Request: fold
Amino acid sequence: MLTEYSRWGYRNQRILLGCLQLLGGVGLLIGISNSLLLSVASFLLTFMMITAIFVRIKIKDSIVQMTPAIFYTVINFVILYNSLV
Reply:
């Protein structure tokens, strides 16, 4: 992962980004019983994954390399939508 974060241009922020992703995942788990937390966590993870897609477009990754970010964006958006409806 060190080389991936370097390739993305976020080598110095890798620990921060990993912690934010972990907190988002924990927020989703706790959000099962707290709808406000679920909405906030899914919104922030959706935003993070949209940013990841733009980073991958910027560095000219293939669509196959972007697939995980696209997949997680869609899943988090579906969770967000369902938590708001």
User: Anything to note?
Assistant: The radius of gyration is 14 Å. Residues 2-84 form one domain. The mean pLDDT is 93. The chain is about 80% helix and 0% strand.
